Amino acid sequence: MALVVQKYxxxxxxxxxxxxxxxxxxxxxxxxxxxxxxxxxAMGKTTDDLIALAHRVSExxxxxxxxxxxxxxxxxxxxxxxxxxxxxxxxxxxLNGAQAGIRTDTRYGNARIAVIEPERVTRxxxxxxxxxxxxxxxxxxxxxxxxxxxxxxxxxxxALAARxxxxxxDVYTDVDGIYTADPNLVPEARRLSEIGFEEMLEMAxxxxxxxxxxxxFAMVYNVPIRVASSLVDGPGTLIxxxxxxxxxxxxxxxxxxxxxxxxxxxxxxxxxxEDRPGIAAHLFEPLADSDLSVDVIVQNAGADGFSNIGxxxxxxxxxxxxxxxxxxxxxxxxxxxxxxxRLAKVSIVGTGMQNEPGYASRVFRALADAGVNxxxxxxxxxxxxxxxxxxQLGEAARALHAAFELxxxx
Amino acid sequence: MALVVQKYxxxxxxxxxxxxxxxxxxxxxxxxxxxxxxxxxAMGKTTDDLIALAHRVSExxxxxxxxxxxxxxxxxxxxxxxxxxxxxxxxxxxLNGAQAGIRTDTRYGNARIAVIEPERVTRxxxxxxxxxxxxxxxxxxxxxxxxxxxxxxxxxxxALAARxxxxxxDVYTDVDGIYTADPNLVPEARRLSEIGFEEMLEMAxxxxxxxxxxxxFAMVYNVPIRVASSLVDGPGTLIxxxxxxxxxxxxxxxxxxxxxxxxxxxxxxxxxxEDRPGIAAHLFEPLADSDLSVDVIVQNAGADGFSNIGxxxxxxxxxxxxxxxxxxxxxxxxxxxxxxxRLAKVSIVGTGMQNEPGYASRVFRALADAGVNxxxxxxxxxxxxxxxxxxQLGEAARALHAAFELxxxx
Lengths: 410, 410
Hints:
By secondary structure, chain A is of the alpha/beta class. Chain A contains 12 helices and 18 strands. Chain A has helices spanning 16-31, 46-57, 63-87, 119-126, 153-164, 197-205, 212-221, 246-249, 279-289, 318-332, 359-369, 393-403, and strands at 3-8, 35-40, 92-95, 102-104, 113-116, 130-134, 137-139, 145-147, 168-173, 194-196, 225-229, 237-240, 258-274, 294-301, 306-314, 336-349, 374-380, 383-389. Chain A has an 8-stranded mixed beta sheet with strand order 3-6-2-1-9-11-12-10, sandwiched between helices. In chain A, strand 17 (374-380) and strand 18 (383-389) form a beta hairpin. The two termini of chain A are 32 Å apart. Chains A and B meet through helix 1, helix 2 and helix 3 of A and helix 1, helix 2 and helix 3 of B.
């Protein structure tokens, strides 16, 4: 008798009919004799609506109170799913984050799970009940409600699966798995039957839909995740430990697993900086203090003893980031600051490229042949990222998808 | 430094602008140096919307899950009011029913408060914070959410006021107090500056807007309640202990305090019942078992040794109640069952009429002069109720209002 944790996203719970379909699927999982914990997100656009409502009463809503407000979306959907299960004759019970034992710190809006006390969940499972848990939320020691960050219902599911020692963690969404690239950009994109945690992390941080902290958590606790569609039956994509994949890697035609893309990127470059220690710190500390998240960073020394530092930010942060950068640039005696707000990122991802030469040159060749100009380059052990003009993102993704023969793997 | 408990109903919280106005009023109460606990209902029609949603996933929603769902309305409004207060520079904190220490039994949908553990509320007040509490909800020992019944945010406020030893409990609503009659029926109706608990109970059970259990609770714990408008400033109506009013009663021109009205009433009469012990029990036990609430009950013996029993139910319950009554009537060998679904109740209410003769005859005279036929009569120590045709409810109310000179009291 297996223990299965399922997670259903908001796109699987858009209305009452969808709630009934989810209940059907949850009941199905139990029918085989398995014990089932279902973690649910808020219905459809509920969270966005609640955020908009909060902004109508406060320009900067208090984080603690915003969490109380946002947590209601998941409370509603878990009650409705449990209700629907009961209407179908299943013994089910909804639990909020506190009842599910998800204890967090007090970083409202982006709380970290401190510990999971699974006694209540275990007790309900032992009674033969399906347990429906409100995702995205936890509670502090004082029993104040916290939320775990956007998209963090995945995290609730993975963390519960880890703590309960679940046999499976199935994440249901509106797509049928993880793709080699965004099918909207690359029509040839193909569903992967499996992907490693680290590869998924790089994909997730660069566009594919899965909460990165959830993947990290799954990697640390080695919880295999199956991402599948709640609308159609299918095998989905299994995200699991690299080790399991080593033998298969030899069999696949290429070691690039997928193309990650991200639009709405802006770049700021500080030019003509003196080349001495502490320059980068002086530039990036005030950005961090202003809570500005910096992504790709590139520094290169000019022949004249001066260096340039470029970095990307989310487009919506460009105005603020440029202000901070200009102040720092003045203090550092830099020559100037330039920016570009119409950029995007395209990356190839795959553990197979570790320590293997030649991938970068193939990327540059493919992009050059497609007429795509590269603004910045950044690499990790399992990823090569190019910043390109947003207008050319689709061409760039298709060129790389073809160059690494991703349409032919499988 | 007084401790004030305020309560705001859904009609005072219809949208974001209304939330801001409520926050303004709460802040105002604190400005004088008082400590403030604000209990809030769900915004506008939220509860109705949630009930409708529940019925789209289940014909008979599970009571426990329905409570989880419904409780979210108050969570949202308490978070929003606290947010709005903080946006205005006030230190405020929202607490759900469990955090406010409202412990109940497990009668989901209509839970009774077992005890209030006010430690968290007291601690927040001591820190100088305004405490915004989600009304209508409590929690079981297992920390499962319960709701206290429709309109029971009043009860949350009164119970907290009693437990905290509050100096005042102000209930804000969309009307500026308790009236001598429903102004929609009786244009001459006048706001009462005060009313006794028992009188309010009779008014509340018979139409005026205040949750009866709250008034009962306030009476038992002697918590004076001020009912006032959240939209306009005004003294409202003070609901308090009769004792305080004794001296004033001598000064007022009449001892009838108000006319209570209630529409949507249906009547069932079982005719030709044998006159022997146990008949009434045999009739009313199955009604109670079917969860049908029976109101006015009249039994009279006929000259022929047979008796008739008539009783009223809410109109929506007529079909079910008639079915149960017909089965019982057959078992009892009664002659027949008749019903009327177009009735209403009109009552005069006032402690002053205790042990004073002549009130009933004045009621009957006034109704007769107005051409209103009386279907049933029922009395308590401080109330005389007539069941009349619904079409004549307004005439009946106006006639009684005039007969007892309620427009002229001061």
